[in-house]
Amino acid sequence: MSYKRKLKSTHNTPTALAGRLYSPDEAAAYLGIAAQTLAHWRVRSTGPKFIHLSKRCVRYSELALKEWVESRTQESTAENR
Fold first, then answer.
1. Distance CA 73, CA 75 (A)
2. Residue 17, Cβ neighbours under 10 Å: how many?
3. Phi-psi region for residue 45, left (φ > 0), alpha (ψ -120 to 50) or beta?
4. What tens-digit pLDDT sequence spans the chain (81 residues)?
5. Sign, Cα dihedral of 17, 39, 34, 70
6. What pTM was computed for the model?
7. Nearest Cα residue to 47 out of 75, 22, 12
8. Which of 5, 7, 29, 54 is the most buried (most CB within 10 A)?
9. Cα gap 15→8, rounded to integer Å
10. Is the Cβ–Cβ distance between 28 and 65 less than 8 Å?
11. Which helix (H) or strand (E) holds 58?
12. Comparing C-alpha atoms, which of 50, 52, 43, 46 is closest to residue 71?
């Protein structure tokens, strides 16, 4: 009996929908900030959403970074109020 291996579609996976996954150093470079700043934001829940893959493995999806930057975009300082 022959078994055919079923290929998984990559266009419906969470990673494909979210784009590339960035390490904290790469995400910090993408945002133009220090990696330590991202670490502080993770503790305070103030930065972009992140993915906790394991105890020591954190990643940021490209989509989460773009959405976070977009949510922080303003047209004037009057919007701070």
1. 7
2. 10
3. left
4. 555 555 444 445 555 556 899 999 999 999 999 999 999 999 999 999 999 999 999 999 999 999 999 999 988 888 776
5. positive
6. 0.73
7. 22
8. 29
9. 13
10. no
11. strand 57-61
12. 46
